[in-house]
Design brief:
The protein is an all-beta fold. Helix content is 2%, strand content 44%. The protein has a 15-stranded antiparallel beta sheet that branches. Strand 10 and strand 11 (140-145) form a beta hairpin.
């Protein structure tokens, strides 16, 4: 079941946006633009209408979460009995002429050992179309239906399991270990986006910037200034 609207945080690339719940589930994403049909639409229905969850096994609501500085880079932290894990979500701004919006999610172990489970159910056209999903290799899955396609990739150390209606993964993170996931949309007739790889521009949250303070990654989208 979808959360309350106040439980969602927004990440975006200035051309579209996604909503991330306190349980680590992306329950809304319209791609490639704000006015496009959603391909993750559990916000208005059930998980079977499309969602992408990354969270510790057996845990629900996160312990805490916050944005980094004045950016739309979202940190979500779970403190479990076996350890602490953080999931960082953001959408890199697109370069000129680049049609593919991307959601980047980085799972980082902070302390102990934490088992994590991921599940992606892509449902195009506001949750009404179940795409054909296949794996192209152990770390990449592609979902296609009509004019739309979605491409999921992950970093080393994790293998994706593709079934008829979803893509799942299970892995364990320890302190200092990071695993990156990238979900990209592109027209089904267009060449597939470059295989996602772990972002090299995403520093650990505790890494100081040149000014001596904790700073956002260079690819972060900055939040607009607050209105007076």
């Amino acid at each position: 079941m979808a959360g309350r609207i106040e439980d969602y945080a927004l990440v975006g690339d200035l051309e579209t946006a996604a909503l991330v719940g306190t349980d680590g589930s992306v329950d809304w994403w319209c791609a490639p633009r704000f006015d496009s049909p959603a391909c993750l639409a559990a916000l208005l229905g059930t998980p079977d209408h499309g969602r992408w969850i990354l969270a510790p096994v057996g845990n629900g609501r996160c312990t805490r979460r916050s944005y980094r500085g004045d950016t739309l880079v979202l940190d979500t932290v779970w403190e479990t009995l076996s350890g602490t894990v953080r999931v960082t979500d953001f959408m890199p701004p697109r370069r000129a002429g680049e049609p593919a919006p991307r959601i980047v999610r980085i799972v980082e172990g902070i302390a102990g050992r934490v088992p994590v489970r991921g599940e992606l159910r892509v449902r195009f056209h506001h949750g009404s179309i179940v795409p054909w999903t296949r794996s192209t290799d152990r770390r990449t899955a592609v979902s296609v239906a009509g004019p739309d396609s979605a491409h999921l990739g992950c970093g080393p150390g994790v293998e994706l399991t593709v079934t008829r209606d979803r893509t799942t993964c299970e892995f364990t993170v320890t302190a200092g270990l990071r695993v990156a996931f990238v979900l990209a949309w592109c027209p089904s007739h267009a060449p597939a986006p470059r295989p996602p790889r772990p972002p090299t521009s995403m520093p650990p949250s505790a890494a100081p910037s040149p000014s001596g303070t904790t700073g956002p990654p260079p690819c972060a989208t900055r939040a607009p200034p607050a209105r007076p």
